[in-house]
Design a protein that fits this description.
Chain lengths: ~110, ~400
Amino acid sequence: MDVQTRKEIQAVVVTLTGRLDAVTAAEYARRMNDLTREGETTFVVDLGGLDYISSAGLRELLVTAKLLKGTGGKIRLANVTGMVKDVFDISGFASIFQIDDSVGEALARIG
Amino acid sequence: MKATIMVVDDEVDLEPLIRQKFRKQIRDGIYEFVFAHNGLEALTKLIEQPDIRLILSDINMPEMDGLALLTELKALRNPSLKTVIVSAYGDMDNIRTAMNRGAFDFLTKPISFDDLEITITKTLDEIALIRQSLREHDQLISIQRELEAAREIQQAILPKTFPPFPDRPEMSIFGSMIAAREVGGDFFDFFMIDNKRLGFVIGDVSGKGVTAAIFMAVSRTLIRATGMKGISTADCMNYANRLLCSESVSGMFVTVFYGILTTTTGVVEYVSAGHNPPYIVSGSGVRKVELTGGTILGCLDDFVFESKTLQLMPGDLFFLYTDGVTEAFNARDELFEETRLERYLESQRSRPTEAVVEGCFQEVAAFATGKAQSDDITILAIRYNGVPYVS
């Protein structure tokens, strides 16, 4: 998995590419922790490049979001499609996260 | 801590000399000295005082010499008991023999007490390290034993008597869980709510290992206790979810599918809390059970679950599983996936439930040959046989 981050005015955009599973979830968590420690509180996570997400990956998305909410931060997901969308539908994660069709839309709504 | 050192030498003058040279350490309780005058006496002392850590032994002694003593000590197989040989300068043949028989080090006579002290300290340090690693090894063994006990407890709370209801011809049930580690986070359960309603559950706790196993035990017990009240599957999930939300630590959650089969009609009322949809294998083929829009338990405490109903025909097979089946990897890092599972199920409509479950485990195992099992695998199969004709 690849984790790219870029800072926009409204939020940090985190782009995940590849597989988010038990092995790579730790890397995602580490990067999010680093950003939070640097004082970032608002995130848009772009899942468009993910071709696989396991239950461990879902768990890490959830843990990160919970930690963020605990400190008054915000998170929106963008581009939940394909296999990732199927997993979100089955697990009901669509009820838990705020999801937008594009990063632009997420950035517009997160303010 | 006090270290007990045994000095083995037939020279009687040595004892007062040692006591004099190390008087400070003896007074301060750092060292305690025990004296023996030949190998046999040394072995006797060793039995009397099992706390002896270090032996300083001469080679030439009556009765049993230092080399014979080393052979006996080797037989004790005690890695934290070390012997330092003391021999005449130039007695290299004997010293080599002593080293080959397991002596830790050697000193030459006449003894330099500075060198002796350095050698004692160094050897005791080494012994301390060995003892610590032995202790850690023992702790590891004891943790492994505890995990084994936890595994037994966990397996004990999963149903394991099949058929579970031998006097109920309306359904046949078989289920099994194979944990990826000693203990797992998956579970399945079933229970008669009343004379004509069978509750059945499958669940998958996020994560693995001991924390998942504890959360699994809590979830299973909570759902069973709540389900036995006979309330709707949705109400049962609402209640269990609220309680698990107040218990949930560091983002633990559980996906659950809970159904109630009315054995007189074949109607199943069910709710899915973020769990993979089960399959129905019927005369017309294999189909997925429709989702109910539920989400995982232990996350949103105000979430409202809704249930659905479906109709089973006599002979239909209800197949529930956890994602350890579809997310098993093979050596080429490919997933087992739903397509393989569906293909397998197509041929299973008339097979006994036990054969369906065991056969599926075998399919997954054959697929994942050469890859370590990364997730718990659980399957629960229920066949609705219909109401028997009573004349």
